[in-house]
Amino acid sequence: MLELRPNCECCDKDLPPDSTEAVICTFECTFCRSCASDVLNHQCPNCGGNFAPRPVRLFALLEKFPASMNRILNARGCGGSP
Fold first, then answer.
1. pLDDT in tens, 2-61
2. 6, 15 contact by CB (below 8 A)
3. Measured between alpha carbons, how far is 60 from 80 in angstroms, rounded to an integer?
4. For the chain, what is the domain count?
5. How confident is the model at residue 79 (pLDDT cuts 50, 70, 90)?
6. SS3 of 7, please?
7. In this predicted structure, what is the pLDDT of residue 81?
8. Predicted pLDDT of residue 75
9. Is 69 among the domain residues?
10. Is 19 helix (H, G, I), strand (E, B) or coil?
11. Domain presence at residue 53
């Protein structure tokens, strides 16, 4: 089950569970589309992998399977690859 992290790890933008702006890598590192393309050049700064659109969890399923509330912010910044 995906965590559905609540924010962009780069700019801290809110990314609610129904956001179509969220992208993830295979380790569920989560970024907004703007940071993924404009800052990170489509490469995860944590693992070096690429991004895919994060699936949207239907509102009806959020009660049983809630999204994560744990905000993660990349302390090293988001200026490049690992």
1. 999 999 999 999 999 999 999 999 999 999 999 999 999 999 999 999 999 999 999 899
2. yes
3. 38
4. 1
5. low
6. strand
7. 46
8. 74
9. no
10. coil
11. yes
Query: Considering the domain boundaries, does residue 74 fall inside one?
Result: no
- Determine the residue type at 7: N
Domain contains 1:
no
Range(s) of the domain holding residue 52: 7-59
> Which position has the token pair 């990349």?
74
Amino acid at 11: C
Phi and psi at residue 75, in whole multiples of 5°?
-65, -25
User: The CATH number of the domain where 14 resides is what?
Assistant: 3.30.40.10
CB atoms within 10 A of CB 36: 25
The pairs formed by 45-48 with CB atoms below 8 angstroms and a separation of 24 or more are 45/10, 45/74, 45/76, 45/78, 45/79, 45/80, 45/81, 45/82, 46/9, 46/74, 46/82, 47/82, 48/81, 48/82
Task: Note the pTM of the prediction, 2 decimals.
Answer: 0.88
**Residue 2 identity (one-letter amino acid):** L
